[in-house]
Amino acid sequence: MNTEQLLTQAEDLLATWSKESTHPDPMRLDVVISADDLRAATQDLHTARWGYLSAITGLDLGIEAGQLEVLYHFCSGPAITTLRVRQPRDGEAVVPSIADIIPPASFFERELQEMLGFTITGLNNNNRLFLPDDWPEGVYPMRAEFTKDQGAPVPGRHADEMPDEGLINGNTFVVPIGPQHPALKEPGHFEFTVDGEIVTGARMRLGYAHRGIEKAAEARNWNQNLYLFERVCGICSHTHAMAYSMGVEKLAQVEVPARAQAIRELVAGLERVHSHLLWLGVAAHEAGFDTLFMYSWRDRETVMNLLEQITGNRVNYSANVLGGVKCEIGPEQAKAVKEGLSYLEGRIRHYLEVVTTDVMFLNRTRGIGTITFDEAVKFGLLGPTARASGLVRDVRVEAPYGAYLMFPVSAVTETNGDLEARFVVRLKELLVSCATMNNLVDNLPEGPLSVRVPRKIPAGETISRMEAPRGELLYYIKSNGGESPARIHVRTPSLCNWVSVLEKAVGSQLADVPMLIAGMDPCFSCNDRMVTVARPGDRQTWSWEQLRQHGIEYYK
Amino acid sequence: MTTLSALFTILIFPAGLMLILIGMLYEWIDRKLVARLQNRIGPRWFQPFADIVKLFAKEQIRPGIANLLLFFGLPVMALSGALTAALYVPLMGFAPAHSFPGDLIVTIYLLSLLTMCIGLAGWNTASRFSLVGATRALTQMFAYEAPFLLALLGPALAAASWQVSEINTYAASHWMILTQPVGFIIALIGLMGKLELPPFDSPEAETEIVAGALTEYSGRGLAIFNLGKSVELIVGLTLIASFYLGGVAGILPFLIKTIVLLLVMAVLQSVLTRLRIDQTVGIWWRFGAILVLAQILVMIIWKGWLS
Amino acid sequence: MKIGTMLKDVLESFFKKPATQIYPFEKVNTAERFRGKLVYNPSVCTGCNLCTKDCPSNAIELVTLDRAAKRFVLKYHMDRCVYCGQCVASCKFKCMNMSNEDWELAAIKKEAFEVYYGNDADVATFLEKLTHPDPVPGDGAVKE
User: Which end of chain A is less congested by CB atoms within 10 angstroms, N or C?
Assistant: First the structure.
């Protein structure tokens, strides 16, 4: 079915509930419904297997408008259907939970609750997700009236309430992994209740690296935001920048030259190589295979040098500008790319062989953490984790954007769904990427590198979806016609994949848990952290400023 | 031996202080070899020594729940166990400082004392990670201890003695790696299990349980445990070199044989992935024990047939 | 099913040079396009301030001493800069570029991170005025 047919199908499915349907964009359908009809509408879409829930965005329409809005984005191939629910700002903004129909929605709904102050009925987990536990009640960061000083921590509360169960409670005890732990690249908190070596329960806490980027974006102009969003993640930074730029360019109705799009795809491909090699090393290190870690990271230097030659930096490439790219690919860079890629292809094939034939490594990956196709659909998995279970969720294939129309890639899938399949999928993906990039470099279209984008972007909303190395990245961008955005919502792929870790951890061995976490290639999301300094008999919670001052005094 | 020369041997050379320094040297060789195999540079020669000095200078943080006597006593006991075990083996090619029939069993017991101290230390400091690490350390000990002992028993049977110095002399004329290859392999891999080297480093799996049983140790206690481990490395290598590689008759053969063994161990370390604790136990009890028992059986039959 | 699949790599490493560079004794040459410290050429600057507006971290302050005579002083905060290169892209007159040699920018004092660009005379005048209570004339875009 093509996009139009998909959208018509969705419109028909929702006809009973829809108060107003519009097509803001040939690929999008907006349906306004009331909060009472939300569950029925979601059930209809779910039963008809129309796409999957990709993100839930919360908006504050402003103090004058007096309303909050929730957008539920469902994606099927290139078509996006958005259910829009409005609720009053003052008083109770009540929306029913759809987490029992669509399990991954629970994470998004918890975010809505704490960031915008919605009351989600029927949600069985009301714990804070991103905000620390000593964040004051009733203060919602994403609301229009929020200012920085409102977020001062509540005295007497711990930023990170861990249950005080005591070490040994009967036959089980809780092993914490994180926030600081050698297994994690970035801070996150997991609590695994173990019975001997078998995990019997899992809990998770995010938000340790939350920086409030979405709110910060509202205070900066469109050019500045490009770099802000690039720094959401270090490993997939180009994809974030690309998604942002594409969204803004769509709003400004600017056509990006073909050469720029091709260069964007080239850098994205190189970034994918970099990201997957990094992941391979980290996953091998978690398994205890340090040699593979050292060698894959040594080979990663090749791709980082390539990126430095093309864009000027090894991480956070800043290759994009609004309207195109900054960096030209001349014959020198093209030659370097081809040489680098041919060396890497050989090494990747070798790692593929290692990962699939080494007996001791397979002991740690084969048959472990198996997620079946049905479970993958139920959990709403994305990216290579989903593709390893046979579920083809690849935006480059389902909804090609930019230069992927000229230089397409094919989706790589495996059917086993265990850890080994995830290794194989990522490595094979790299081989496909390398082939595409070789083709691209030889056939780079001619043309300018960028076009001019106005400083004030016309009012409107847009959704851009890209395939980051970890899965589908969704950007919702809303402009009110000014120099700064009205709202930007980022839904990173890792957020959708966490559920699989928690579900699969229960029943597996403790030793497999770091591998399970690493297997979905986590890239932790964002918040401002409060630090607690505990001295015997005197617990205080200090803000960042106070802690810094203490450090300066201590070391004088 | 006179009292003075005995004291000198025990405290300074070749046991005691010299042993500790040589232990650090061997630890450095191991780390350097592994680094070079991983295409890295590796630490400089004084790195282990610098680590120990740094640890001694650091504050020792005692967990509130730990028993004081055990907390401070266990590292010392572990190190002394390893140092005492060194008295009975032909260190540096010299005759063992003290030798009596049956000292092979005592040596192996003293080496196990170190692992048991680590397990106890983990239980004593009672943090979530150290408890899991201690459990794993002791489980692993049950796994490799029997095959390792049996692998050292093979040469003892061949030499018809339980005394290390006599086995050493016997081995000088009989290279038992050729006659008992299976035993050699089991002994070498058993030593890797004993020292918690990859692939048997599940008890101190850094990515799962931070530092295993020794997570809560810092400063002096940790330094002494690390010293104990280095000494254990040397004693183990000496045992295997003297039994299987034709005895250690002098300093040069000692150095050459132990470093060759260390090289083989470094290659094995870099090429194999860490085993989960249940896989470790499974492999040892299924393959390790059976293979070495078969080897011993062959030995007994052959000896009986000869005489 | 094999065991020790990386054996070949591992043994070959004995004969290869290690991949580690002993920095600072061995330094790698950066690529030509590497984005290091910002360099400003005051002679072509028109004072449009696009660089100041577009900097994501407010690392550039453009002080106008005399707009008609095109005398500007650029105060560059090296510690705020994220080395993104947007200022280079925004500038229509090519006053800016990022050095590929100057990238070892660690310093012990904060003062080292405030770099003033401009003609020597202009910079001197500006620094003089800073230490004196007189306000800077013109529509200087000094942000705080």
Answer: C
